[in-house]
Amino acid sequence: MHDEQKALVYGLTAVLAWSTVATGFKLGLAVLEPVQLLFVGTCISAFVFVTMAAPRGWPGRHLNLREGALFGLLNPVVYYLVLFEAYDRLPAQIAQPVNYTWAIMLAVLAVPVLGQRLSGRMITGIVIGYLGVLVLLSQGRFDAIPQLSWPGVLLAIGSTLIWAGYWLASIRSTTEPSALMATSFCLAVPVLGGLCVAGPGLPPLSRDTLLYGAWVGLIEMGITFLLWARALKLTAHAGRIGQLIFLSPFLSLLLIGAVLGETVHLTSWLGLGIIVVGLLVTGRPKTSTLPER
What we know:
Helix content: over 70%
Order of helices and strands: HHHHHHHHHHHHHH
Shape: globular
Number of helices: 14
Largest sheet: none
Radius of gyration: 19 Å
């Protein structure tokens, strides 16, 4: 049965939670190396997904080690390592909106992967979206090249390619989603643990480590997706609820300014606005399995 009021509450809760992750990333990366933060977050997320999948018969016949290893390599290992390295190098007001263009990259990749046509509307939306990125990168100046970490910019853009590719690949999976996530994240834990041992060392056990790991593991990777899925299940107007997601990056900029103390430039707001227009014009590939992140 549809319950629009509950759907709105679930949807807004998810949006509010997602709007905090950019701030959480920067705070976590101030005390942990990217791979350490990801390791703790993945451990917590793995527990969440196992808890979800176990009542549905996981591992049992749902345990596909080959597929789980492939998807786990993409998400969380490669995607979040690239994303965290971008956040480690860039102001949050740059990294967050650039990462938000993953949906535009999704539309681009859907052409060769799903065999969809690149329409005039899609081309227009793509151009608008990346024009927004250029405005964003200006950092309030159009008379000189901004002082940014350009490797960080490339990493942020690369993260959109990885995330879009991951979701397009997941469309072809026949494994029950919670079982796939449980397998992927469980297999990712020892990989990330090994990377920690080979690099900066295992993260220290402390209140901050657990706090920021939980922020990543629960809000970014875990529970928030469940809230969003619940909202879409309860509503008879998924498109209307889906529009709430566009609030998240703007709320995120407010938190970045208030909590992190970054001076949020006018061009950050303008660039993000142009990116959102590009997203709306581009639209989404025609499949119901894609996330509304």
